[in-house]
Amino acid sequence: MRYWSRPAHEDITQTREMLHFLMEDRPGQVEFAIECDGRCIGRAGIWRDAEIGYILHPGYWGQGLTFEALSALIPEIARRRPDLDRLTAEVDPRNTGSVRLLEKLGFTLVRTEEKNFLYGGWEWCDSAYYERTLP
Question: Measured between alpha carbons, how far is 77 from 98 in angstroms, rounded to an integer?
């Protein structure tokens, strides 16, 4: 959870509430569960109108699974959301794995902002903003 929008939950109630929210149908929502051997290990989708986001269990990092999921997700977004002409992504620039992933998927760095995100109420972090056009 180091580069997520918040630290790990402190109790199961927080996790249940978040999962309930994530499983609700929302207009314009395009999301994939990332599965491996029948187990949900992550998810990828649109978090805000045109902003993609993803999370993957660390035990599966470095295997190309998020690249595979996003490579399928991006054309599906284009198909289901013809109103969008581009996608955006926001990452902590220290998250070099996500930076490499976005660049491999054709995203380009638009700008960075210093100390614009307060993580966990105690650490100011930078943000890097990426975008790419939809096919």
Answer: 20
In terms of Cβ atoms closer than 10 Å to its own Cβ (0-12, 13-18, 19+), residue 117 is middle
Q: Which CATH superfamily is domain 12-133 in?
A: Gcn5-related N-acetyltransferase (GNAT) (3.40.630.30)
DSSP E strand boundaries for 1-135 = 31-36, 39-48, 51-56, 86-91, 108-119, 123-133
List the pLDDT tens digit at each of the 135 positions of the chain: 455 566 565 788 866 776 666 666 666 678 888 999 999 999 999 977 899 999 899 899 899 999 999 999 999 999 999 999 999 999 999 999 999 999 999 999 999 999 977 777 777 888 999 999 998
Please report, for the chain, the start and end positions of each structural domain, with discontinuous segments joined by +. 12-133
